[in-house]
Specification:
Shape: globular
Order of helices and strands: HHEEEEEEHEEEEE
Number of helices: 3
Number of strands: 11
Length: 216
């Protein structure tokens, strides 16, 4: 039998084409695997128990939020920035303009209030501030943990529409912050809002988180 002649001009483009196809397939599989991995980590696929554990283990956060405070006479709105880590909390007012730049800083058991416009500062030593600041997310977390650890019936977690809702009724007897609820968006995995109600379940504070970075 005669030898088969291989035309190099034809075989080289074929080999290059095969390599190209294999490369595309590998890239596609890697991307698809990454999407699958991300979807597994997405909060939408987690159980209520896993979501609860994730929220209760928040050790730090940075947030930009809109706060609406309602009273019998009027409604006030604020734009705030918050930074929280262990034993440290900072809140800066961005709006309204008349108190823009007002800072509240709690660190090492000391509370410091700065008015950057007027260049004024007050310091209060040994101040138990973190537990009393119901505008902070960690205050909700502490209340929820206490009720859960005491095995009371004053806390719950449920799924409703596109949200996971964690709610707590603190046993501290504060009639102005009797009920607290946070809403976690299942689609984004982010905390969307915090609602604080008085003893009559009337909205006292409504916090909308425009941006929040957790444990970053």
């Amino acid at each position: 039998m005669g030898k088969i002649k291989i035309n190099k001009k034809i075989i080289i483009p074929i080999i290059l084409f095969i390599i190209l196809v294999l490369t595309i397939i590998v890239i596609f599989l890697l991307k698809n695997d990454n999407k699958i991995s991300n979807s597994v980590n997405n909060i939408g696929n987690k159980s209520l128990e896993e979501i609860e554990k994730y929220i209760l283990n928040i050790s730090s956060y940075n947030a930009e939020l809109e706060v609406t405070v309602e009273s019998n006479k009027n409604t006030n709105k604020y734009l705030l920035e918050q930074q929280y880590s262990a034993n440290s909390f900072k809140q800066v007012v961005r709006e309204p303009s008349n108190i823009e730049g007002l800072e509240i800083i709690y660190e090492n058991n000391n509370l410091k209030i700065n008015n950057t416009k007027l260049n004024l500062s007050n310091i209060y030593e040994n101040y138990n501030y973190i537990a009393g600041n119901f505008l902070s997310l960690d205050s909700f977390i502490e209340d929820y943990k206490k009720e859960k650890e005491s095995q009371s019936k004053n806390y719950a977690i449920k799924s409703e529409n596109n949200y996971v809702i964690m709610e707590v009724k603190p046993s501290n007897g504060n009639k102005y912050a009797s009920y607290k609820k946070i809403y976690i968006d299942r689609n984004t995995g982010n905390i969307a809002k915090l609602v604080i109600q008085d003893i009559n379940k009337k909205n006292l504070v409504y916090i909308l988180y425009n941006k929040i970075e957790i444990n970053s």
